Structure formats: structure tokens, C-alpha cells
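Q: What does the predicted 3D structure of Antitoxin VbhA domain-containing protein look like?
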Amino acid sequence: MSIESRRVAVTKAFGRARRLGLEIDADPAFHALIECWVTGELTMPQARERYLAVLKEREQSRRDRGLSNRPDPAVPEEEAKLSTGEVGAGDEPSLQRVRKRRRTRKPE
């Protein structure tokens, strides 16, 4: 796949996501990974793994600052519900929604 065709693929994917109302991560680290894929420096699985590491670091940083609304796995479930409140299905992170949609998507 050429650089030009990868760039077109990214443009189409981002456009499709916007039309569906999905947020695209504005983090420069994400866009740098996409650019590395476009230029052929990374494969998509490598870019994905690195992006997941970025997300993990981001979540850890939020936890360290006390901003995360995700329950701590070390806290008993009942105690976590009392302190964080119930979280509805509409509150799950957009990345999780995309993954679920991708799993249930019919082949084109």
C-alpha cells in the first residue's frame, strides 16, 4: 500500500467516523502514530498496540490525579458502586463502543 493510498484511507476513515458522530482522539500522540502508519514506519497492529499503551498511560495518569471514574479493581464491587455511582451503558468510553460495533458489523 502506497503512502498516498494510506493517506486516502485515513481521510476516508476519519470522515466516516465524523459522519457517524464518533470522536477522533485529538491527542498529538494518536495523530503521530497514524502518520507513522501512513509513511510505512509502523504496521497497523504496531500502531494499535502503541495507541493502547498511550490510553493505558492516560488512564493511569487520571487515576494518579484522582480523576478517573472507573472503579479500582482492588476495591470491593459494592463499595465501588457506593463511591462512584452506577455507570450506564451510554457512559462507556467511545473506544469500547467502536470495538463492540466492529465485532457485530456485517461483512461488506
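A (community wiki): The C-alpha cells above were generated from the sequence. The chain has a mean pLDDT of 76. The two ends are 21 Å apart (CA to CA).
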